[in-house]
Design a protein that fits this description.
Blueprint lengths: L1 H11 L11 H42 L6 H11 L8 E2 H8 L6 H10 L3 E3 L5 E5 L1 H19 L7 H9 L3 H18 L3 H9 L11 E6 H7 L9 E6 L27 E4 L2 H8 L19 E4 L15 E4 L16 H5 L10 E7 L3 H11 L3 E11 L19 E9 L13 E5 L9 H9 L5 E4 L10 E5 L10 H10 L12
Parallel strand pairs: 4-5, 7-14, 8-9, 8-13, 10-12, 13-14
Antiparallel strand pairs: 1-3, 2-3, 5-6, 9-11, 10-11
Helix pairs in contact: 3-4, 3-6
Length: 509
């Protein structure tokens, strides 16, 4: 009403502001109309409030008359009584009391409820039933029976974690995007035909020759935990029990690297050789030799020399250089060491124009090794890590290196210089897990990594010992047994430069 009045005022040009041009009559007329309108508004509001109040009171009265909560079983008995064909209509509510066993105090409420649902018709007294809607009552009973059966079925309780999982589940669009991304990633990472050929080239001839160690260590322990009572075909160890061994002390921390095995009271182990015969009987083929595989390898070559004053220019150029220098790491070692300045002054650059260098470092020598690579003209491109394991193939806990923490690994810096051609990238990983053997002896797996990286090229190892001599390698060191050269050109250059060595050592065949 107020809005209608305001619209009318605006349409007629009436304003509440004082206008000197208006006459007293027009202002009086406007004031009277305004008072009349406001009176109508107030009367209308009062009438509306009275109607709301009256309706609220009626609702409260109806609420009082609503039936109270009725037992469902009681209601069901009354419904069945109404369907009884012997029931005569019209009938009194007392008849239902006899047929259903309902209490009298609940009967009025129940009849009012059924009347409100149009299932029965009642007279004004509220107890006399004049008609019954049999079809509606039958349908209501069926619905109640169905609801009762469903209530007896155990319902699945939704776990909050299930809800969280459903909320976080990817949508169809997300799955499609992920699928497309996976296909693209698969195409990008798929190996080319050339890469597959290189991989096949370096696969082990005759299949894998690796044999897994049994986690139970000994054959006796393996039989004890086996359901069949027989040991598995994997490698086992045998306990070395001597007269001075005390088995209650447990295993030796150094195992096969123990320096005092003749007097050590702890338990030591060795490979159980008895299973080798059994495995061959079972059809396992023995490991083939290099000759049986048809490998064409240059025999090992070595020179006994002091690298501090050796003329490396007579050796020629190599594609790969590996060195395990005797760094001065301020520890007592069973061999002589070299000072930092002596390491920097080594004539490594003359050995190589293009290729790789693998430099073993440990302890404080890690920073010195990086410095030496820069001085020798190399760029450090990668780093190998050797994770050390003991004889039982477990991580070592008590090493013999490290001032503050026992070292369980060693690092090998990889440097490169010049134009690298004919190399194979991405074949091996940068981690080697191998067993610790003699002091300062590096894992043999490094030779396979280098050969696959640069196959069929000349390779040289510096500061090597007799166990380091490998096919396709030239080894230099002052702990080698004489000289052994097979390359005619190399023999000629070497003995021309050092003729005194020609008869210094007997010929090695």
């Amino acid at each position: 009403m107020v809005r209608e009045y305001q619209a009318e005022v605006k349409a007629n040009g009436i304003s509440d502001r004082y206008d000197s041009s208006r006459t007293w009559r027009s202002k009086t007329k406007h004031s009277a109309r305004h008072k009349s309108f406001m009176k109508k508004v107030r009367n209308k509001r009062r009438h509306r409030q009275e109607r709301i109040q009256r309706r609220t009171e009626e609702y409260e009265d109806e609420k009082v008359l609503l039936p109270s909560e009725i037992d469902p079983k009681l209601e069901q008995r009354v419904l069945y009584a109404l369907l009884n064909p012997t029931l005569e209509i019209p009938t009194q509510g007392t008849k239902l009391l006899e047929m259903s066993g309902t209490d009298f105090e609940n009967l009025p409420n129940l009849l009012q409820k059924l009347y409100g649902q149009d299932l029965i018709c009642l007279q004004s007294d509220g107890y006399t039933i004049t008609s019954i809607n049999l079809e509606s009552i039958s349908r209501l009973i069926e619905m109640k029976n169905l609801s009762l059966r469903q209530s007896n079925i155990p319902r699945f309780k939704t776990d909050p974690e299930e809800i969280e999982y459903l909320l976080n589940a990817p949508s169809v669009r997300d799955k499609e995007t992920k699928r497309v991304g996976s296909e693209i990633q698969e195409l990008l990472t798929a190996k080319s035909y050339q890469e597959q050929l290189i991989k096949q080239k370096f696969q082990s001839a005759g299949g894998s020759q690796l044999r897994e160690f049994c986690p139970q260590k000994t054959r006796e322990d393996c039989r004890r935990v086996s359901r069949s009572g027989r040991a598995c075909p994997r490698l086992h160890f045998r306990r070395i029990i001597q007269s001075h061994t005390d088995e209650s002390l447990g295993d030796c921390s150094f195992l096969n690297t123990c320096f005092h095995m003749e007097s050590c009271k702890f338990v030591h182990y060795e490979i159980d050789q008895t299973q080798e015969t059994e495995s061959r009987k079972g059809g396992i083929k023995p490991r083939p030799s290099l000759q049986s595989l048809g490998s064409k390898l240059v025999p090992p070559q070595w020179l006994n020399c002091d690298l501090r004053n050796f003329d490396t220019s007579v050796l020629g150029k190599f594609a790969v250089v590996m060195a395990d220098p005797p760094w001065d790491i301020h520890m007592e070692l069973p061999y002589g060491t070299m000072s930092d300045d002596e390491m920097r002054q080594l004539d490594i650059p003359s050995l190589q124009d293009d290729g790789f260098i693998f430099l073993w470092v440990t302890g404080r020598a890690m920073e010195l090794g990086r410095e030496c690579l820069t001085l020798w003209g190399y760029e450090r491109i990668d780093e190998l890590v050797w994770v050390k394991t003991n004889q039982l193939q477990r991580l070592i806990r008590t090493g013999r290196t490290g001032h503050w923490i026992n070292h369980g690994k060693e690092h090998c810096l990889v440097g490169a210089k010049g134009n690298l051609q004919g190399v194979n990238r991405g074949i091996d990983t940068d981690v080697i897990v191998a067993e610790v053997r003699a002091t300062s002896r590096k894992p043999d797996e490094i030779y396979g990594v280098i050969e696959r990286l640069s196959p069929g090229t000349r390779k040289i190892e510096l500061f090597g010992r007799q166990h380091n001599c490998q096919p396709n390698w030239l080894t230099l060191g002052n702990q080698l047994e004489g000289d052994n050269l097979h390359d005619p050109e190399l023999r000629e250059r070497f003995y021309s430069r050092y003729p005194e060595k020609l008869h210094a050592y007997p010929a090695v065949t």
